[in-house]
Amino acid sequence: MVKKVKTNTIKSNPANPRIIKNDKFRDLVESMKGFPEMLEKRAIVVDENMMILGGNMRFRAWQETGFKDVWIDVAEGWTQKQKDEFMIKDNNHSGEWDWDILANDWKSSELNAWGLGVWENKIEGSDFKPAMFPSQSGAEVTDDDIEKGSDSLGSTFQKGTERKFIETMCPECGHEFNVAQE
Fold this sequence. Notes:
- The protein has seven helices and six strands.
- By secondary structure, the protein is an alpha+beta fold.
- Strand 5 and strand 6 form a beta hairpin.
- The radius of gyration is 22 Å and the shape is elongated.
């Protein structure tokens, strides 16, 4: 059951194996300031002694916002082994992002502001021209480059259809994904 308590009743867990560094921490604090209701739906998980099992970094960021109350969910009756297992599993993010959906349905500036840490488009929207090949990452891609590259992209670039897709690569991680062109 989720309930609201005073932040000074919660204890950070010294055995927490997760950390958050400067920029990401500041992003998390700003995110919480802008959308504090989110923490009610992602309550801090504590044991009977009010020791955090899940949400150490969210709690630390919440404290930084200056809010005096926090939502918690108490895990009662768990063994130490269960508490330890939860602490690891809660931080073990098994899923992966669908980069095509992210690139086509979300603005990179929003995703970065929300802490995802993705590519940065200097110009959001239809003016964005991705590098189609790693060798072009430092050069501007011209319309001719896009037209030449479209012939080699096969089904991801369909001439005469409403949506055209350009294969691009994340400059940070090298992941390849398609970006819809208007």
